[in-house]
Amino acid sequence: MSVSQRLAKTFVRWEAVLVVLLVGVFILNTSLSPFFLRRINLLNATYNFMERAIMALPMMLIIIVGEIDISVAGTIALSSTMMGLAMQAGASIPVMVIVALGTGLLAGMLNAVIVLKFRVPSIAVTIGTMSLYRGIAYVILGNQAITGYPRELATVGQGVVGNGMFPIPLAIFIALAAVFGVVLHRSRLGRCFYAIGNNATAARFSGLPVDRYKAALFSLNGLVAGFAAVLLTSRILSTRPNIATAWELEVVTLVVLGGVAITGGKGSIFGVILSVFTIGYLRFGLSLINVPSQVIGIITGLLLVGAIILPGLFEKLSNRMIIDRQLIPDIDSETTTIDA
Amino acid sequence: MEGISNMKHGGVRGTFLHRILARREITLLVIIVLLVAAVGIRAPRFLQPGRQLSILNDTIILLMLTLGQLAVILTAGIDLSVASNLAFTGMAVAMWNMMMPGVPMIVLVGASILIGASLGAFNGVMVAVGKVPPIIMTLGTMSVYRGMVFLISGGAWVSAHQMSPAFRGFARFSFLGLPSLVWIGVLTTGLVYLFLNHTKGGRELYAVGDNETAAGFVGVSANRAKIKAFVLSGAIAGLTGLLWVSRYASAQNDTAIGFELETVAAAVIGGVSIMGGSGSVPGVVLGAVFLGIVKNALTVIGVSPFWQMAIQGGVILIAIVANTLVDRRNQAKLSMNGVSA
User: Fold this and answer.
1) What is residue A307's predicted lDDT score, i.e. its pLDDT?
2) How far is B332 from B24, CA to CA, in rounded Å?
3) Is A119 part of any domain?
4) Which residues contact A113 (CB under 8 A, 6 or more apart)?
5) Residue A107: inside a domain, yes or no?
6) How close, in Å, is residue A152 to chain B by CA atoms?
7) B79-94 burial string, b = 16+ CB within 10 Å, else e?
């Protein structure tokens, strides 16, 4: 592939589109409020969407291996409820955190067992466990809320790193994104995830422990949901059974808008990171000018559908540009694209 | 998957009893009878005709939506936008009635079906032609259609006193001892049954869901089948929108919120395979009735309504696992019969 082809390919990549979208959101927000671009404002806005951002990381891996987990929001509600019960039983903050993480891990493991042991599609299973997990939270709490969390708990979800103004949740997200990015793009394990997502049967025949990897990913997703519950509880210092309602949709939207194929086998961490900030700041900006949440729902819904249609169009466009530049079509171009 | 369709067309040899047990509809029917009997022993008022009628009333809308869901799932899709479609169409016809109370009901019925069908068609075209996976498409339109309710209503409700008496009474007027809502549900069920089992278009949904490539080779257009399924699902959702706001005499922004998953649950409990190609109208009827009875039984035997969601989740899980196990056993039996024959 020549330099110009590479350039064309890069230029019309989905990530590039996301960068344009993100810049567009920034321009929009700046025109709405002159204070938007202040550093403190940009940083503080992230508190509102970091739990969902963190959830998007393991969800990305689950979708890349060709599965899905609709139960994450239910898991968050259940983990937060268990954390609240631990608090009421007099547990210290570390114990509360362990309870939340443990609850999330168990929930993820249950998903894994049902999906893999009984060979049921994960969409069906996690629709069931979504009701089950949130349902258990309702059984425990009814229409009550748990409040009275210790003030110190707030340091995780509301605090800043050191004496500066860098939000702790944002720092955690960056650290986790780095780890997930390295695993996905720079490790053998990451290549295995793509292989499984592209063709699970072929991956199994080439000796990959497909089920074990999938089980690990479902469990990881639950564990991270437990962690998101800690962050959320720490930020709002209360638990209700209806917290994080409909977040499963938002998390899947973040991942898919980031260019991860819902059919598996394709996607990058950069796309997901870009979509996290694009959607996050878009919501922030729209809520600044009092756009009702229902209208924001329309916009994210359309973005989600657009995110599926547009990358396909861009791929066609980029292939056409490459072919245009080559007077004699290269027979090997198919294989080079796969290698690239 | 092929094993199941073979079995349905009489491929299984065995005793009469085996054949009956292989039909999961009958198993489900037995479970429902046992459930009703158990609840009836615990709380005899559960068996009174009035209570049964109210369960029927509560279940009919779920049943109708699940029939549309069945059509879509048969093509290996899923329609998560049905509840938002219902809310939007319900709000649209309720507002129309509020502004022009003179418009006859038959026009509103036609309008509700048309509005619903167009929302469904949008899903179908994007799935078939735009190649958007159904789950993503309908997750998207779930929030888009829900947001559109807010756009047309401005967040306001349409309440009973703003509706004409004909509109309010539409789902309730009694005919041969049963409310019109039930009759409309029965009629819809019959029509969907005829469509799926006795028309070429209906059989094509099964063919496409079972094996899209093979269906293509024998000249079945997968795109057209998918669009048909989504239009049917949307049309039913639109009609139930009218019925819902008429029955509860109020149209709100959060009408039927979360109901889409109940329709998926009812379909799965009724033995519809989420992978497509397999599922029946009688199964769906039993699945919806089962969910309806469970919900009502909980309140009758005094279980807190907060248990409802957890129990529903548990029931869905048990149903899908049981279905998979039954399928696997049937398939194993099928291959054994094949060897001995």
Assistant:
1) 77
2) 16
3) yes
4) A215
5) yes
6) 32
7) bbbbbbbbbbbbbbbb
SS3 content of chain B, % helix, strand, coil (to 5): 80, 0, 20
Q: Does the CA dihedral B147-B151-B155-B161 come out positive or negative?
A: negative
Among A121, A134, A312, beta carbon nearest to B131:
A312
CB of A292 less than 8 A from some CB of B: yes
Q: Which domain holds residue A309?
A: 3-328
Domain coordinates of chain B in residue numbers?
69-262
Indicate the residue of B137, B147, B308 with minimum beta-carbon distance to A298.
Answer: B147
The CATH number assigned to the domain holding A108 equals 1.10.3470
pLDDT given at position A337: 43
Inform me whether the C-beta atom of residue A313 falls under 8 Å from chain B C-beta atoms.
Answer: no
Q: Which amino acid is at B338?
A: G
pLDDT at residue A134 in the model: 95
**Residue type present at position B331:** Q
Smallest Cβ–Cβ distance between A123 and the set B126, B274, B308 belongs to B274
Number of domains forming the structure of chain A: 1
Q: Which DSSP letter does residue B8 get? A: I
Beta B250-251 vs B158-159: how paired, if at all? antiparallel
| Cβ pairs A/B, distance under 8 A | 136
Neighbours of A283 (CB within 10 A): 21
B80-137 pLDDT, tens digit each? 999 999 999 999 999 999 999 889 999 999 999 999 999 999 999 999 988 888 988 9
With beta carbons under 8 A apart, name residues in chain A contacting B265.
Answer: 127-128, 131
In a domain, A334, yes or no: no
Q: Extract the tokens encoding A184.
A: 């996905």
ipTM of the shown complex = 0.79
Per the model's pLDDT, the better-predicted residue between B154 and A232 turns out to be A232
Distances (CA, A) of A174 to A179, A268, A273, A277: 9, 15, 9, 12
